[in-house]
């Protein structure tokens, strides 16, 4: 099976700063992949390159067999890449349902159809009871789910989740984990940036660790958490196994 997403030798420079350096990763259809790494490792930069915020300085991004490197975010969304934002971007004064309808309108121009889709997605995300309230009335964990709902309403093949489980209570995070599992079960591939290793590791099939803009290591969560290079990158050399 060919990967759903590939980054090929991707570089992102900001002036003299190299935020992504020769990053080649692949995500297979049906996977949940975690993109992790210490602060400043280049996770958000890579995420933005995949979502289409900007083209990379160098390298290419292949999605579903097509080169999307130069395509804007809206066109990538039409092709099946949807994302959530670390800082929740919902339209605060609009109702929850209207926020989701904005996503659904990527696939249809018929309002009735968009509304039906939005209700379906809100139900899937456990937010249907909140459909008519303004987005500003939602508590933080509900806002995260609204972000997921808005992205799902665009009917993506690949869902990019940017720290949707960070900053939640244990119970909320558990519900979030369950939602991500259901998203995958519905046929959507997931690439997620997360800080909290304890939450993300039991959830993902595979983790890719970035450090200093490069892929440090990738593999199964059980191997990643024991890898001395990963321990060292997160905690500093003196904590590395065998150091
Ligand atoms: N638009 C930008 N202009 C200049 N430098 C940037 C820009 N975006 C990111 N950087 C720099 O690139 C490096 C990687 O940042 P990035 O936000 O991708 O890391 P991260 O792994 O997502 O970090 P965090 O976990 O703290 O969110 C950092 O040094 C950051 O300051």
Automatic annotation (TrEMBL):
Originating species: Rhodopseudomonas faecalis
Entries under Pfam families matching the protein: ABC_tran, BCA_ABC_TP_C
Protein name, UniProt field: Amino acid/amide ABC transporter ATP-binding protein 1 (HAAT family)
Segments forming domain ABC transporter: 5-237
GO cellular component, one term: plasma membrane
Biological role stated in the UniProt entry: Involved in beta-(1-->2)glucan export. Transmembrane domains (TMD) form a pore in the inner membrane and the ATP-binding domain (NBD) is responsible for energy generation.
Gene Ontology terms for molecular function: ATP binding; ATP hydrolysis activity; L-isoleucine transmembrane transporter activity; L-phenylalanine transmembrane transporter activity; L-valine transmembrane transporter activity
SMART domains: AAA
Keyword set includes Nucleotide-binding: yes
Domain of life: Bacteria
Keywords: ATP-binding, Nucleotide-binding, Transport
Biological process terms in GO annotation: D-alanine transmembrane transport; L-alanine transport; L-isoleucine import across plasma membrane; L-valine import across plasma membrane
């Amino acid at each position: 099976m060919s990967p759903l997403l590939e980054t090929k030798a991707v570089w992102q420079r900001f002036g003299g700063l190299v935020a992504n350096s020769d990053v080649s990763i692949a995500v297979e259809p049906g996977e949940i992949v975690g993109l992790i790494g210490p602060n400043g490792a280049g996770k958000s930069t890579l995420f933005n390159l995949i979502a289409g915020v900007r083209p990379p300085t160098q390298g290419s991004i292949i999605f579903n067999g097509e080169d999307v490197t130069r395509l804007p975010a809206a066109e990538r969304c039409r092709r099946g890449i949807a994302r959530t934002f670390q800082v929740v971007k919902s339209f605060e004064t609009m109702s929850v349902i209207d926020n989701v309808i904005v996503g659904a309108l990527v696939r249809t121009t018929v309002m009735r159809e968009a509304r039906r889709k939005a209700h379906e997605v809100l139900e899937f995300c456990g937010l249907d009871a909140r459909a008519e309230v303004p987005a500003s009335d939602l508590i933080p964990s509900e806002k995260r789910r609204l972000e997921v709902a808005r992205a799902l309403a665009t009917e993506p093949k690949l869902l990019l989740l940017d720290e949707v489980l960070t900053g939640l209570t244990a119970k909320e995070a558990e519900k979030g984990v369950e939602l991500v599992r259901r998203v995958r079960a519905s046929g959507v591939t997931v690439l997620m940036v997360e800080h909290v290793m304890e939450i993300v590791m039991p959830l993902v099939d595979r983790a890719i660790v970035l450090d200093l803009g490069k892929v440090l290591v990738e593999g199964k969560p059980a191997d990643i958490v024991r890898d001395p290079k990963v321990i060292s990158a997160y905690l500093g050399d003196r904590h590395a196994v065998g150091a």
